[in-house]
Amino acid sequence: MCITKRVNVETKVLSKNDEAAAANRALFLERGVVAVNFMSAPGAGKTSLLEATLRRLDRAAAARIAVIEGDLETEYDADRIRALGVRAHQIVTGTVCHLDARMVAHALSHFPIETANLLLIENVGNMVCPAEFDLGEQLRVMVYSVPEGAEKPKKYPLMFHQAHAVLLNKIDLAPYCGVALDDLVGNVRDVNPSAKIFALSCRTGEGVAAWVEWFEQAVAAQRAGVRACV
Amino acid sequence: MCITKRVNVETKVLSKNDEAAAANRALFLERGVVAVNFMSAPGAGKTSLLEATLRRLDRAAAARIAVIEGDLETEYDADRIRALGVRAHQIVTGTVCHLDARMVAHALSHFPIETANLLLIENVGNMVCPAEFDLGEQLRVMVYSVPEGAEKPKKYPLMFHQAHAVLLNKIDLAPYCGVALDDLVGNVRDVNPSAKIFALSCRTGEGVAAWVEWFEQAVAAQRAGVRACV
């Protein structure tokens, strides 16, 4: 397949995805739901971040949260979320390397969100493809694992560029892995000057409170926007 | 795009790729070149592994090595290889999340390998898609970063399944990241009972000699096979 044909096929796939994402967005607006798309490479700590975040929210807020998990195989991540008493739906993609808007729409047909006002979507672990597929979300959060190196924002810029917040996770490992945090932050900033950047460790808890505080405010701001539109 | 259409498009893309991979394989055979495809998630340490491996080879062997690097953006990795006196060609894929056989064929038209007998191909950092695209290589090596967690072989099985060798890199971080190496090895073994598994650290050098010894033998065995076919 030549590059031109590939681009045509990709363009059609993305155009169809955009239609489905617009329908999801309209549904979220109608239901008063704020949807957040969490993206990262495999093992950067998305599920650990969701756990750390959910544990810091009060019970009333947690009761109105729904989580969609995306993985090629297993229900491990949904089980981890359910263990916290939060409803979760697992999308098993098989060989597909990202979530798309139709998968989310299909999940929502089986996983009613009527009583939810916040939908957290954990994408498939992949630093490239998920960033190309709009799910209809209002917020995009990227989790990055510090031991993966300081130069990755330059080599894989799209996901960093699209995120409203970039979370530099596993900073507890920074002293042992030879990655200069300042260089990493500078590279994120070069690719995305407006993203909110948090350095944290989901394992030790360092920096998590500051992230959760920002996240609650960002969700509240989106919710105010949603209400204004209803 | 419905799932059936997506599958049809993917099947066509992969079928075209298989044709190009077969042509690459024939070219490698004709030239007496052993080609090795190095795959991993971003930041697992493929380039560091290539550096550590190249440093341990004698000058005569290194002179007959060529390296192809794949990244979405930048020539950083090719520059790191060239700094060791080894010829390297960078494929910049733009938005494409993997190398395919046509990209490698195209690179070979600009990057003559007549005097090489070993071609090391560093794929784009992605734990999913590269495993779906045969490049015509004789050996597949997967690098995995221990801090990414013990359960990933179960969640992203294809690349682990296809590798002749799985290298568990960054074991120097194991004491600090709460990942049980035995569980990780067990999960790799469940997905791929026949893969050679090495635990190592490209940063400290621990375990690298054992990997290089195996790699030299595996390449020699492939070369004997190549010679037998010429």
The percent range for strand residues of chain A is 15-25%
Named at the architecture level, the CATH assignment of chain A is 3-Layer(aba) Sandwich
Instruction: Enumerate the spans of chain A where pLDDT stays under 50 for 5 or more consecutive residues.
Output: none
Top CATH class of chain A: Alpha Beta
State the major sheet of chain A: 7 strands, parallel
Q: Termini of chain A, distance in Å?
A: 46 Å
Walk me through this protein's architecture:
Two copies of one chain form a homodimer. Chain A has 230 residues and is of the alpha/beta class. Chain A has one domain (16-229): P-loop containing nucleotide triphosphate hydrolases (Rossmann fold, 3-Layer(aba) Sandwich). In chain A, 47% of the residues lie in helices and 17% in strands. The first copy, chain A, is built from ten helices and seven strands. Chain A has helices at residues 3-31, 46-56, 59-63, 76-82, 101-110, 152-155, 157-162, 174-177, 181-191, 208-229; strands at residues 34-39, 65-71, 87-92, 118-122, 139-145, 165-169, 196-199. A seven-stranded parallel β-sheet of chain A has the order 3-2-4-1-5-6-7, sandwiched between helices. In chain A, strand 2, helix 4 and strand 3 form a beta-alpha-beta unit. In chain A, helix 1 runs parallel beside helix 5 (101-110). Chain A starts with a helix and ends with a helix. The mean pLDDT of chain A is 93.
